[in-house]
UniProtKB/TrEMBL annotation:
Organism name: Botrimarina hoheduenensis
Coiled coil: 76-106
Protein name: Uncharacterized protein
Residue intervals passing through the bilayer: 12-31, 51-73
Keyword field: Coiled coil, Membrane, Transmembrane, Transmembrane helix
Taxonomic placement: Bacteria, Pseudomonadati, Planctomycetota, Planctomycetia, Pirellulales
């Protein structure tokens, strides 16, 4: 494992996570019915095979998303930026072509008047 804190990996805000866990624990202590409801909902003995499979797929999707989402988001932003640059260049070429056609039309009109 890379122990370098300046690495490009995602760093977790440990203090905020600990605070969130403490708040959830406090909420369960204040509202014990919520705690028992949550325990009953996540008691896997009562789940069907399909529910277990779907839960596993959801957990895997979340874990994979957490692992690769920063890189995917950066790649998406880079592609979006490149498409924007290509679009701007195409618009600039189109406007330059239209200007050239207008200038040629003006020159051609002058030649017709002079002839």
């Amino acid at each position: 494992m890379n122990a370098n804190p300046s690495s490009d990996r995602l760093s977790l805000p440990w203090i905020e996570i600990a605070l969130g866990v403490a708040l959830v624990a406090l909420g369960f202590q204040l509202f014990p019915a919520a705690w028992w409801t949550m325990l009953r909902a996540f008691d896997l003995r009562n789940w069907t095979w399909g529910a277990r499979f779907l839960g596993t797929v959801i957990v895997l999707f979340v874990l994979v998303s957490i692992k690769w989402s920063p890189g995917l988001w950066d790649d998406y932003q880079e592609r979006k930026k490149q498409r924007s640059e290509v679009r701007q260049k195409a618009e600039q070429l189109k406007s330059a072509r239209e200007r050239k056609q207008r200038i040629e039309g003006i020159k051609e009109g002058r030649w017709r008047r002079l002839s």
